[in-house]
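#struct-help
A.M.: can someone run this one for me? Single chain, 329 residues.
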Amino acid sequence: MVAGRIPRLLRLIALLQSGRIYNSAQLASECEVSRRTVFRDLKTLQESGIYVLYDDEKQGYSLPWRTIFPFKDLTFEEVLALFVLSQDLDKTIVGLPLDGIAHSASAKILSSLPAALRDHVIEAAQSISIWLTPCNPSLRNEIHYKTLLKAVASKQNVRIHYHCPSEQKTASTMLSPYHMLYSNREWFVVGRSSVDRGIKVYPILKITKSELLDETFKKPSRFKLERYLGNSWDPVKLSTRTVPVKIRFQSSAAQIVSHISWDPSQEIRTLKGGAIEFRARVDNLEQMTDWLLSFGTQAEVISPPALRKLVKTRISEMSQIYSKKSSRN
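D.P.: on it. Structure tokens below:
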């Protein structure tokens, strides 16, 4: 949904709530769009839970005010933040199952505001953008996301079938889903597996089939996602053993690194010339290798030797690729 469509939907809602019955041609004229676009917008409102009424006798549409919930206590900054986030979700996180819901919620909130405040928010939002990391737009797994979300909310067991890369086969387990996590550009479900008899993390992109069961479960009070994941840089590849790492970042990357919380255990030491020394305890050196390579020549592993070797090997492999002639030549 582009930014211009939300103001049009709000205009449509305002017309329908005015007390007058409008037919499709009149709505199209008021909104300066085609009748086809009006029908599409009316469908969007219906799918968002805003139930438009059609009067057979008068051959027109209306919308009772009671269908929209007022949000009188929200400030300009609060509404602006919600509106901007919901716009930019659709631009960069295509396929994230929350984007459509965020749009409909934003439209409902904006429509309940006084006209002056609503117009002020819409105008200000045109001058603000947020660029977010794109995610995998796999619509194939949206149905599994919805099934698991329902299972987490209602504390119901699910039967999942998932692709197991290490064994090159599809496996199955009954899962008590405790938590859903969005990390590293994809969704994961965390819960107790009947096969492993313990807590496991499953990438939703790997799930091929999901079925909601009648059985319910009780989530252990001691379960905390942060405690379970610990210092992991990869939700799937967890390890109980952590390794201390020490990395030196040159001044050009030091400011970026030092102002972001990459890991709960991190410590930053300032060195001469603006460089910094990054220290942390992690459980997945391979995942950290990808992060380090993103800084290019601005990062150098001081320890442990295993991480330094991993980075060196990856650079060597990349060098071999680029030392060959391109396959297109």
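A.M.: thanks! The two ends are 41 Å apart (CA to CA).
D.P.: also worth noting: The longest helix spans residues 305-323.
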